[in-house]
Amino acid sequence: MLTYIKESIEELRTNITLPTKAEASNLMVIVAVFSILFALATWGVDSLFSSLIKIYFEKLIN
C-alpha cells in the first residue's frame, strides 16, 4: 500500500500539467453553459412527462 501511495504522489508530481488561467476560464464557461442546457432539457422533459401523466389520469378518472 505504501508503494502505491508513493508511486501515485510521484506520478502527480511528474506527469500532471495544470491548465493556464485562460484555459481554466474557458473550460469553466463551457461547463456552465452545458450545465444550464442540461438543466433546461431536464426541466423540459419533466414538464412534458408531468403533463402527459396529468392528462392520462384525468382521462382515467372521467
From TrEMBL:
Stated name of the protein: Preprotein translocase subunit SecE
GO terms under biological process: intracellular protein transport; protein secretion; protein targeting
Residues that span the membrane, as ranges: 27-49
Top-level taxon: Bacteria
InterPro entries according to UniProt: SecE_bac (IPR005807), SecE_sf (IPR038379), Translocase_SecE/Sec61-g (IPR001901)
Keywords assigned: Membrane, Protein transport, Translocation, Transmembrane, Transmembrane helix, Transport
Native source species: Cellulophaga tyrosinoxydans
Lineage: Bacteria, Pseudomonadati, Bacteroidota, Flavobacteriia, Flavobacteriales
Cellular component GO terms, alphabetical: membrane
Places the protein is found: Membrane
MF GO annotations: protein transmembrane transporter activity
Major localization class: membrane
